[in-house]
């Protein structure tokens, strides 16, 4: 699963390698779901993501991610998660002129709105600046998200 091989290729490989095996595509999907569940180790999906963000290091042992979260004042439930790769933040510092923001609703693993923020280099290639999961869709949620982006821009000496 970590190799980036899709279910169709996995199915084709298994059918060719083991022609006598009785296998249907649903078996591959079930196996992938079982592996995903095992990898969660009893944690929620969002908790597993937070753990990955907190523990991930680059080859030099430095933090791999910039991230911050927002919790509901009364319930302490996570309502916002802003994260960006340090490496891509450095790229944004070099190419700050064009920023695209796209809101995607309920089409991700967490079933919550996702703001994707991308930049463009001088060669017209795009790169992710940050991703933001927002539980709500209120104006205050988006203000929080944009303030996090503003803090990241400030760290790069990017002014509005």
Which short descriptors sum up this protein?
single chain, 160 residues, alpha+beta, 5-stranded antiparallel sheet, 5 helices, 40% helix
**Topology order in helix (H) and strand (E) letters:** HHHEEHEEEH
Number of domains in the coordinates? Answer: 2
Uncertain segments of ≥5 residues (pLDDT<50)? Answer: none
Structural class: alpha+beta
Largest sheet: 5 strands, antiparallel
DSSP E strands, number: 5
Side by side, the strands of the main sheet go: 1-2-5-4-3
Q: What is the rounded Rg? A: 19 Å
Estimate the helix proportion, in percent: 40-55%
**Average residue pLDDT:** 88
Strand content: 15-25%
End-to-end Cα distance: 41 Å
Helical segment tally? 5
Q: Overview of this structure, please?
A:
This protein is of the alpha+beta class and 160 residues long. The protein has 2 domains: 34 residues, no CATH class; 111 residues, no CATH class. Helix content is 40%, strand content 23%. The chain is built from 5 helices and 5 strands; from the N terminus they run αααββαβββα. The chain has a 5-stranded antiparallel β-sheet with strand order 1-2-5-4-3. α1 crosses α2. The longest helix is centred in the last third of the chain and has 17 residues. The radius of gyration is 19 Å and the shape is globular. The N and C termini lie far apart (41 Å). The mean pLDDT is 88.
């Amino acid at each position: 699963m970590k190799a980036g091989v899709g279910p169709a290729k996995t199915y084709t490989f298994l059918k060719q390698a083991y022609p006598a095996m009785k296998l249907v595509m649903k078996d591959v999907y079930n196996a992938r779901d079982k592996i995903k569940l095992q990898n969660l180790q009893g944690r929620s999906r969002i908790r597993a993501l937070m753990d990955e963000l907190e523990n991930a290091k680059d080859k030099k042992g430095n933090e791999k991610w910039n991230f911050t979260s927002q919790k509901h004042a009364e319930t302490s439930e996570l309502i916002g998660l802003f994260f960006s790769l340090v490496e891509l933040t450095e790229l944004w510092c070099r190419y700050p002129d064009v920023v695209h923001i796209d809101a995607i609703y309920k089409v991700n693993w967490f079933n919550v709105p996702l703001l994707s923020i991308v930049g463009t280099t001088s060669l017209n290639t795009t790169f992710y600046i940050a991703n933001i999961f927002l539980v709500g869709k209120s104006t205050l949620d988006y203000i929080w998200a944009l303030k996090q982006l503003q803090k990241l821009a400030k760290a790069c000496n990017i002014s509005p």
